[in-house]
Write a structure and sequence with these properties.
This is S-(Hydroxymethyl)mycothiol dehydrogenase. Belongs to the zinc-containing alcohol dehydrogenase family. Its cofactor is Zn(2+). Its EC number is 1.1.1.306. The chain is of the alpha/beta class and 369 residues long. The chain folds into two domains: 3-147 and 337-363, Quinone Oxidoreductase, Chain A, domain 1; 168-308, NAD(P)-binding Rossmann-like Domain (Rossmann fold, 3-Layer(aba) Sandwich), CATH 3.40.50.720. Helices cover 27% and strands 25% of the residues. The chain has eleven helices and 18 strands. The chain has helices at residues 43-49, 97-100, 154-157, 163-174, 190-202, 214-223, 236-245, 262-271, 294-300, 314-326, 345-354; strands spanning 3-10, 18-24, 31-40, 59-60, 64-72, 84-87, 118-119, 126-127, 137-141, 145-147, 182-186, 206-211, 227-230, 252-257, 272-280, 303-306, 338-340, 360-363. Strands 3, 5, 6, 9, 10, 17 and 18 form a seven-stranded mixed beta sheet that branches. It has a six-stranded parallel beta sheet with strand order 13-12-11-14-15-16, sandwiched between helices. A five-stranded mixed beta sheet has the order 7-2-1-4-8, with no helix packed on it. α6 (214-223) links the parallel β12 (206-211) and β13. α4 (163-174) packs parallel to α5 and α7 (236-245) runs parallel beside α8. The longest helix has 13 residues, at 190-202. The protein is globular and about 65 Å long. It starts with a strand and ends in a 6-residue tail after the last strand. 52% of the residues are buried.
């Protein structure tokens, strides 16, 4: 029997979000209904609202979520009713060319639920990143559910579903940061700070946090940055020189751009050591263009990489990172700045603009199983 639940939607480009009734169908083959317990407010949700992803309005927002499997459809074997899960937007297919060559973290044919959630009048909703978790319950593909330690705080571990995994994976998986490496991170919001935490976890000896906001630099220090650079008054050359001064005059082994603008990417490119690595994890808008002389690309060597979802494999990475948090080796709880109700998402977007939070997290009542 389809269920009616509360959900937060973006009805049109730029319009304030609305708390409405959402119809969640019974799960079909390979699908599950998850009773959502928490969902982080990610900048990607704001980008959906602003029409920066596509124009498939209305959107059911929310995707950094944790909850409990409530019902399962025919043929579901990956999870069972009662499992505590973190939702992910990389449900690997196992059969595309990336999966077949042993690189499922690049899966090109990820799974989502086949059915659509709707409004009461039957209008189909586009679930953000195939999840749509600013709702009491959501319908997803079974592969989008990753089981983790059920004693975990949903508001904390749910953030692995997007921003924290993207940043941490950019350092550990994409950037290959290792013991003794020097790392610079440009942009110290949630993703940038997760990259700093990942670099620290991997054993980097020098971790340089770069931002224009002193509060964000203070947070970055708390996550493991050994040095901070306020770039407010620095031009391109000044920023590059600041990184070089902190790395013996050479530049960093790995530079991570968590902003995604031409000026930050170029700074990352020139602030790395010869044969160093640049990782772009900040998502640029389609209109942005980088102009770099090809001789510099050739002459500096190294690697220029983009990090998709931290190049993660949820089934491998989420449980491991939860275990590290439980051991006190990864401070995931520090990403949760505030806990809010479902009707406070629009205010959370305004707070996000002010730069006063790493993550606002919506908390819901969850299931009664």
């Amino acid at each position: 029997m389809p269920q009616q639940v509360r959900g937060v939607i973006a009805r049109s480009k730029g319009a304030p979000v609305e708390l409405v009734t959402v119809v969640v169908p019974d799960p079909g083959p390979g699908e599950v209904v998850v009773a959502v317990q928490s969902c982080g407010v990610c900048h990607t949700d704001l980008t959906y609202r602003e029409g920066g992803i596509n124009d498939d309005f209305p959107f059911l927002l929310g995707h950094e979520a944790a909850g409990v499997v409530e019902t399962v459809g025919e043929g579901v074997t990956h999870v069972e009713v009662g499992d505590f899960v973190v939702l992910n937007w990389r449900a690997v297919c196992g059969d595309c060319r990336a999966c077949r060559r042993g690189e499922p973290w690049f899966c090109f044919t990820t799974h989502n639920a086949a059915q659509k959630m709707t409004l009461e009048d039957g209008t189909e909703l586009t679930a953000a990143l195939g999840i749509g978790a600013f709702a009491d319950k959501t319908l997803v593909h079974e592969g989008q559910c990753t089981k983790v330690d059920p004693s975990s705080d949903p508001a904390v571990v749910g953030l692995l579903g997007c921003g924290v995994m993207a940043g941490l994976g950019a350092a550990v998986n994409t950037g290959g940061v290792g013991r003794g490496d020097s790392v610079a991170v440009i942009g110290c919001g949630g993703v940038g700070d997760a990259a700093i935490a990942g670099a620290r976890l991997a054993g980097a000896s020098t971790i340089i946090a770069i931002d224009r906001d002193d509060q964000k630099l203070a947070w970055a220090t708390d996550f493991g940055a050994t040095h901070t650079v306020n770039s407010t008054d620095l031009d391109h050359d000044g920023l590059v020189e600041a990184v070089q001064e902190l790395t013996g005059g050479f530049g960093a082994d790995v530079v991570i751009d968590a902003v995604g603008r031409p000026e930050t990417w170029k700074a990352a490119f020139y602030a790395r050591d010869l044969a160093g690595t640049v990782v772009l994890v900040g998502v640029p808008t389609p209109d942005l263009v980088v102009d770099v002389p090809m001789i510099d690309i050739f002459g500096r060597g190294g690697a220029l990489k983009s990090s998709w979802y931290g190049d993660c494999l949820p089934e491998r990475d989420f449980p491991m990172l939860v275990d590290l948090w439980k051991q006190g080796r990864l401070p995931l709880e520090k990403f949760v700045t505030e806990r809010i109700a479902l009707d406070a998402v629009e205010q959370a977007f305004r707070t996000m603009h002010s730069g006063g939070v790493l993550r606002s997290v919506v908390e819901l009542s969850g299931p009664a199983l």
